[in-house]
Design a protein that fits this description.
By secondary structure, this protein is of the alpha+beta class. The chain has a single domain, classed as Thiol Ester Dehydrase, Chain A (Roll). The strands form two sheets. Strands 1-2-6-7-8-5 form a six-stranded antiparallel β-sheet. Helix 1 crosses helix 3.
């Protein structure tokens, strides 16, 4: 790993990607992390193996839930400059619209953080839609 960015003291998107890629499921889903307009953005690219119902057609709810969790984890890694993913202990998901067979992008915001816990809010969108396909609140344990 190239180290934490000197400018902000936080890992950049490439460094967050390297930390997440240590998790095999992240690699299986093909998750990509990037910075867009100074926000960490996590993309779940469309692939046939993440389709839940080909007759609708729609992405699997579990794949969408995983994207939300991974995006929350990525943002928390960036904010805390963690070297490994924090442990999630709770996630509440609201599915708001059908997720079609398109790339899905998620952004997260750390809502609150203490020494031991963090709450992160995540939104997933598809295409140019202003309406989220799903949102989640994810809680993490920061100490082991």
């Amino acid at each position: 790993m190239s180290g934490i960015s000197e400018r902000s003291g936080r890992p950049d998107a490439g460094e967050v990607q390297q930390i997440l890629d240590a998790v095999p499921f992240v690699r299986t889903l093909g998750i990509r992390v990037s910075m867009v307009d100074d926000r960490l953005t996590v993309c779940l690219p469309y692939a046939p193996h993440i389709v839940g119902n080909p007759k609708v057609p729609a992405l699997h709810g579990g794949a969408l839930a995983s994207l939300l969790q991974i995006a929350a984890t990525a943002e928390l890694i960036r904010v805390t400059a963690a070297r490994k993913p924090p442990r999630m202990f709770s996630q509440t998901i609201e599915y708001l619209a059908g997720a079609g067979m398109l790339d899905t992008v998620a952004t997260a915001t750390v809502v609150s953080r203490s020494r031991r816990y963090a709450n992160v809010r995540v939104e997933a969108r598809q295409g140019t839609s202003t309406r989220p396909a799903a949102v989640a609140t994810v809680q993490f344990l920061l100490v082991e």
